[in-house]
Design brief:
The complex is a heterodimer of chains A (260) and B (246).
Chain A lengths: L3 H15 L15 E5 L7 E7 L2 E12 L10 E7 L15 H17 L8 E3 L3 E13 L4 H14 L2 E2 L10 E2 L7 E8 L2 E4 L3 H5 L4 E6 L5 E7 L6 H24 L3
Parallel strand pairs in A: 4-6
Antiparallel strand pairs in A: 1-2, 2-3, 3-6, 5-6, 7-8, 9-10, 9-11, 11-12
Helix pairs in contact in A: 2-3, 3-5
Chain B lengths: L28 E5 L7 E7 L2 E12 L12 E8 L14 H15 L10 E11 L4 H15 L9 E8 L2 E4 L3 H6 L2 E7 L6 E4 L2 E2 L3 H37 L1
Parallel strand pairs in B: 4-5
Antiparallel strand pairs in B: 1-2, 2-3, 3-5, 6-7, 6-8, 8-9, 8-10
Helix pairs in contact in B: 2-4
Classes of the chains: A alpha+beta (260), B alpha+beta (246).
Chain lengths: 260, 246
């Protein structure tokens, strides 16, 4: 079947871009409204619900006690996975994890891991025998565009409010997980020929490339990813990186305000 | 049953249960309709500490073709527990338990949806358990009914998931986690609240005929209460829609 609707939509997106407009009336670097709730799930040791425009995701943190990897006997571990289950939208189908969901989980994982916000040494209980494993699972419930940023925000917010259930594992009293930084992600999608911040589902239907930038506390880069078909110039990247610097700081502030 | 009677006290001296409920008292239930913008219909149900979300997509073309029925639509249910929904993390993906629950839930929904209205079609019902504390299959059914109604799919009646069971030789309504783990029986039902018909039934444990009858009586009573909450949620949703359009 020829994808007629995306074709027609692309023309419209191009026309709008030429007039510096967007399909939902936002300006180029304007995000949709974000609502962040934490500690919203019983049974998860840390949890967050993100309502990003009409996109809704949940993130939950679980811990396990496990034997350390042989090459890192005194370090715990962190794993972040995302599920794009059929609940998330009409286009999602049941089956084994899709390449899209694996990419999503891994990009979010890298941003958190590489920022160094979790001290892996602090997760060691008995060197060579027992370490803590942290598992962040992200569940996308409603995909109306830009699930990457929503998932990254939910993951770090859930992590930052997580309590280590030490009593349950018989290794002391429960304590809040130490997270030293708040890495946040900012994604840009080419829509109608130019990059915009926080594309919605209609803008994503255009199918052009997207760039995901994860920045840490000092505005340092911790993870980058370009997805989908298309190219960009260094000058374009410089421009969106500047937007990302400001936007990521705002997102980090939103996450940090949750803890009080 | 795991643990078994006598290991753990589940009833207090005063005859109330550990969480202070009377034997025929259910946990608190909250329902909201239309909470997932991507879906054609959706619902959120909090039942005690359980949280279930349901999305409905369709009616849509049924494919692959071999699943099509010439005279009706098929209802494709997926019941799934989020990895973080239980005290020990669950590995993502389908397992035998969720497959069985999905199958019997689909069949119970097929008994209330006017499936003959949509030949060769498919309705997708996605039940996601975000927090589990005993009775999730029932919460899923309650949510699915509201989500189907929210999607505008014609049904004979709503359907309510409720469970009764037995702890310390006493029949109780709506088992919580401890009662489910250490009790003697569990009887989940899907009830059509208007007609009192039963579209979903499972049971495990040990019940006398008399105890079974008491369980059914408790379940029927609870179904009527939850039915009111389902209707309220749908009314609120439609008031919202009307306001949005005017």
């Amino acid at each position: 079947m020829v994808e007629l609707v995306p074709k027609l939509l692309q023309q419209e997106l191009k026309r709008l871009a030429e007039n510096d407009q967007r399909i939902d009336g936002r300006s180029r670097w304007e995000s949709r409204d974000i609502k962040l709730e934490t500690n919203c799930l019983y049974n998860a040791e840390g949890s967050a619900k993100v309502t990003w425009g009409e996109t809704i995701i949940y993130a939950g943190v679980k811990f396990e006690v496990r034997t350390p990897w042989p090459d890192r006997p005194a370090q715990g571990s962190l794993m972040c996975g995302a599920e794009l289950r059929p609940v998330a939208g009409r286009k999602y189908e049941p089956g084994p994890p899709s390449p899209e969901s694996i990419e999503l989980g891994r990009v979010v994982d890298r941003g958190i891991r590489e920022s160094g916000c979790i001290d892996m040494d602090s997760l060691c209980i008995i060197p060579g025998e027992k370490v803590l494993g942290i598992m962040i699972d992200i569940h996308v419930l409603s995909d109306k565009g830009n699930i990457f940023d929503a998932c990254a925000l939910g993951a770090i917010a859930a992590l930052r409010t997580a309590i280590v259930p030490a009593e349950r594992f018989d290794v002391g009293e429960d304590y809040p997980l130490a997270v030293s930084m708040t890495p946040t992600m900012c994604s840009f999608t080419r829509v109608g020929g130019r990059y915009v911040l926080d594309a919605n589902d209609e803008e994503e239907l255009g199918g052009n490339e997207r760039i995901h930038i994860t920045l840490g506390d000092e505005g340092h880069l911790h993870s980058l990813q370009k997805g989908l078909k298309g190219t960009f110039t260094p000058a374009e990247f410089d421009e969106i990186l500047q937007v990302a610097q400001q936007r990521c700081a705002e997102l980090a502030e939103l996450v940090n305000s949750q803890e009080a | 049953m795991m643990g078994g009677y006598g290991d753990i006290k589940l009833l207090r001296e005063d005859g109330l249960r550990l969480d202070g409920r009377k034997v025929d008292e259910m946990r608190e239930v909250e329902i909201e309709a239309g909470i997932l913008p991507a879906a054609d219909g959706s619902a959120w149900v909090k039942h005690g500490l359980n949280v279930a979300v349901c999305a409905v997509y369709g009616p849509m073309e049924a494919h692959p073709r071999k699943i099509q029925r010439q005279d009706r639509c098929v209802i494709d249910v997926r019941y799934n527990m989020a990895p973080f929904s239980t005290s020990d993390r669950i590995r993502p993906g389908y397992n035998r338990r969720s497959r069985e629950i999905s199958k019997v839930t689909a069949e119970s929904l097929e008994s209330v949806v006017l499936v003959e209205r949509y030949p060769r079609s498919k309705i997708r019902v996605e039940i996601e358990i975000l927090a589990a504390e005993a009775g999730t299959r029932c919460v899923g059914i309650t949510a699915a009914a509201v989500a189907l109604a929210d999607a505008g799919i014609p049904m004979r009646d709503l359907i309510v998931g409720v469970a009764a069971g037995k702890i310390e030789d006493t029949v109780v309504l709506d088992l919580d986690k401890a009662e489910d783990n250490y009790g003697q029986a569990d009887l989940p039902m899907g009830i059509l609240p208007t007609t009192g018909e039963i579209a979903f039934l499972q049971m495990d444990g040990d019940l006398s005929i008399e105890e079974y009858n008491t369980c059914v009586e408790y379940n029927m009573k609870a179904a009527k209460e939850i039915h009111e909450l389902q209707k309220d949620a749908l009314k609120r949703r439609y008031e919202e829609k009307m306001r949005g359009e005017s």
